[in-house]
Amino acid sequence: SDLLDWFGDEPWTNFRTTFQYLLSQGYEIDILRHDFIHFDATQYGALILVDSEDEFTPDEILKLTHDIRHNNLGLIIFADWHSPQLLQ
Fold first, then answer.
1. Can you tell me the distance from the alpha carbon of 34 to that of 15, in angstroms, rounded to the nearest whole number?
2. Number of C-alpha atoms within 13 angstroms, CB side, residue 71?
């Protein structure tokens, strides 16, 4: 199996260098363990999606779009793969 999947997709495993750098620069990082509907985007400066392999529900897409456009939520995406079929 793939070495990067041994410990799951977590920011402190697959993207450890970036995770440690953000912490060293004074950023606080919360790990969301539920869907995106239930977090208060006004309490955050940015949402970092790390190797997200799940599809978003229509409600999540609407909420995140609103949060980005109207609540000044930044969006950063880290990924190490892509699917041409999903991009279409």
1. 20
2. 18
